[in-house]
Structures are given as structure tokens and as C-alpha cells.
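[agent] plan:
  1. take the single chain provided in the ticket
  2. run structure prediction with default settings
  3. attach C-alpha cells to the ticket
  4. add a short note for the reviewer (M.T.)
[agent] executing step 1
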Amino acid sequence: MEKTTDATTSTDLTPNAAAATNRPLVSEPLMLPCGVTVRNRFYKSAMNEALAGRDCAPTEAHVRLYRRWAAGGAGVLVTGNVMVDRTQLGEPGNVAVEDERDLAMLRRWAAAGTEHGAHCWMQINHPGRQSPITINRSPVAPSAGRLEGDYGRFFAEPRELTRPQIHDIVRRFATTADIAKKAGFTGVEIHAAHGYLINQFLSPLDNHRIDEYGGSLENRARFLFEIVEAVRVEVGPGFPIAVKINSSDVPIAVKAPRSADESDKTTPGGFDEDESIWVIKRLSAMGVDLIDVSGGTLEKPVIQTNSGAREDEARGVYFTDFAERLAGTIDTPIALTGGFRNAADMEKALSSGVTQMIGIARPLVVKPSLPNLIMNARWQGTVRLPWITTGVRALDQAFGGILVISWFELQMNRIGRGKSPNPRIGGLRALLFAIRQHGVGTLTPRRRKGHQ
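[agent] step 2 finished; step 3 output follows
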């Protein structure tokens, strides 16, 4: 286990003050709107750990994994998807929390993730229709209708939610958040991105309702706003609530300005940047403590390749154009997630004001102590992620995105068993690992969350 030195928790360091003390900006603490201070600007974004068994319970592997990350120096660790309904899972190996049956292990997980002064926030989610048929033959959604395109055959057609069912899901989010707080997690992140249920309500392509939850943007956002309000009532005013939201549902946003009361227009790309900014401003006014910017859905993922460092070099830091549009329009801190691989890019993003937190995920799997290396050892290198291949071109083409997910899940599994990550492991071994852990159903398409 690497030794770590905690960053200061003083709240009086501005970027200029940090520069004067020759400390990197990423080491600067941040006070959230709720009054809570996080120790630095490293924000470990969510990845599905795939470590839960069929009982959807957290395991000792979660404890070891998050203890390792907490020792690595990040200010905030966000868990992978924790589903609010154990009958509605988004991926194999999801944890689900709908009651207190697993409270003892949740407490162990939270305690490990908050060692050394780290925050550990539980990401809470509902997959909606984005729940593979191999684990759920009866998904739900704002409206009926299969996923489009090649992926459609892997998912059952969902049932349209009734109003009482919508209200029950809102209650479930609040209940899960309350249990997270009781277990010792220091915040929650509501997942409203990546094509899961809340994103489905936001998207005019997915949401065809004609009641108060459909039509205008304000109506489509009602479900999210009700969840945020219910969670805040349950956890109280001094507990951090973050929201992960798409900048848009497509890699390149469709520009179609609209007002909140327009109910007769739809955008070919679904939920777009202008709509996202409107929703984010409302969330800020509601007192949300952090906005985690992301993008894409299962049908339109942000990226789909498995080329690792080459992909990073071609793309750079994600969503910066959107973050620049958002900068200065809200007081709520922003976590910009995706593409950060070196200290220089992190410092540039913080100094420019486009983000207040540096969202990273995959680099913390291959280099768990990256935050401490940058803050304490002043490491100036670049994390180069591997090109993940089976050695068989046809397999790589067939399972490119799944290869990436499975490879990083294998590495997290290694850390969870007390081992070190091993970048030399190939794609074929990762696929075999995934099948062994979760059966052939693991090869069905899943939202690629590992791009950060």
C-alpha cells in the first residue's frame, strides 16, 4: 500500500495563492455550496466495478479497492452505479441498495473510501430501458419503445411507467441516499446521463409522454428535479449532492435553441447543449453541490474504440467547449470528466476556470496513486492507456467497447483482491474473465463508462 500525505483542508487558497506557494492548483481544497470542503480537485469519476455478486451486495473487494484509491490521494471518490431497485440493473455486477440489508458491508465500504481525508460519494441510478435482457426481461421507461439500431436486440421492450411508479422511483432514490448517508458515505451523485432512466426522461427521443412528465423541457426535467428535491429532504442541507448530466446525447451537439415551454419541437440528437445548460442552471438554483459533465448514450456513445493512448491523443480533454459555454453562468462547481492524462492539462483547465474539479477514472485504475504523484512528487509524465486487443481483428471489432470495459473491470478486480494492476494483460484474457465472472450476458452491449 502506498504511503500518502493528506493535502491541506484550508479554504483560503485561491489559484493565485496556490501559485505563490508553488503548489499545483489540483491540490487546492474546494468548499461546496453545502458548506463541506473537499481536500483537493481530483474527482474520481464513476466506473462500474462489477464486483457485486448475484445478491447485488457490496463485497470485501469494494473495500480493498476504495481503500487503495483513498490512499492514492483523490479528493472525491465516486462509486460505480448503485441501483435503487435490485430488479432493475444496468450491468452485471451492479450493487443495489433499496433497504438496509447490506448496511454493515456498506459501512465498511464507506469507511475504506473515506480514509486519509477522502470523500466517498455513492452514485445512485436507475437504468430504465437500458437493462440487458440477460438480467432483466421486464425493464421500464418513460415511454414504451425498444432501443434503436444494432443494440436493440439485446434489450427487452420496456413498459411505460405509470405516475405511481414514477413517484415510487423518486422515493427509491431518496431512500438509497438516506442509507448511503447512514452508512458513512459523505455524499451522493445522482446519475442523469449516459442514456439511463433520468436521461431517458430528459430526451425528447425517448420521452413521448403527454402528461406532466413529457412534452416541454420543463416537464421532461420534472423527474430529475423531483429526485433532487426528495434526496435533499432526506439527507439534509449539509450533505453533498452531485448530478452527473450529459452536455448532449450525441458526441457533437445538435444546435437547436429552444425555450423551456416549447412542447412541439424535437431535436434529432435528443437532449442537446442548450437544454442541458437550462437544466443545469435550474439545478444550481436548487442548491446542487456539483455538476459532473459528461455526454453520449448507449446508442450514441462518445467514443467506441479500444486504442487507448492513441484515442486520447486524438481527442484530448472532453467537453471543454461545453464547459466554456457553462463557465460563469452558475455558481455551482463543475467536474469536467474525460481525457485528463497529465498535470499540465489539469492545471490549464483549472486556471482557465472551465472546471473546478478534475474528473478522472481509467488512469486511476492503472495508476491508483496518480493524485499523490502529481501533488506531492510533482510528476510531470502522461498516463498512457494501453491498446486493448485480443490479437484477433474480428474479435476486436465485435467486442471493442466491451473489451475496454472488461479489461478495466479485471484490473479493478485485481486491486480488490489485494494485487496490483497489470497493464500487460491482453483483451482475450479480459473477455474470458468477464464471462467467468458474469456469464455470457456480460458480452451484451453496455454503456461505456470507462472513457474518463
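[agent] step 4 note for reviewer: Residues 104 and 395 are 41 Å apart (CA to CA).
[agent] ticket updated
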